[in-house]
Amino acid sequence: xxxxxxxxxxxxGGFQRLFDEFSRPLAISQRRGTYPPLNISxxxxxxxxxxxxxxxxxxxxxxxxxxxxxxxxxxxxxEKGSYYRxxxxxxxxxxxxxxxxxxxxxxxxxxxxxxxxxxxLPKAEVVTPKSISIESA
Length: 137
What we know:
It contains one helix and seven strands, in the order H-E-E-E-E-E-E-E. The chain has 137 residues and is mainly beta.
């Protein structure tokens, strides 16, 4: 039997980090430890959301887009058994990503590759920069 006491070595420091984490004025989706972890990036024409979902089947994921948010819901099923340590969370999850610009709904694509959900959100034409030529008078 393995007993891991390493998490108790700095117990007072752990409580201080916990209080510090909750006292920060951040949105809940920006806090450390939220599940599933994700990366959000963009280029001129798209916003990209990559979500790490190892062990989650496509049938257990619900992805929806509203005018201002992308919502990801799902469930990561846990194997039954007795754990000595459990660092990968299981159960139901939900992440809400606020979008600050209009999205072209018809061009949204999502795929699950090797446990990573890749969502491509094309920016609406209204948002994309347009080059304007200047005429001389």
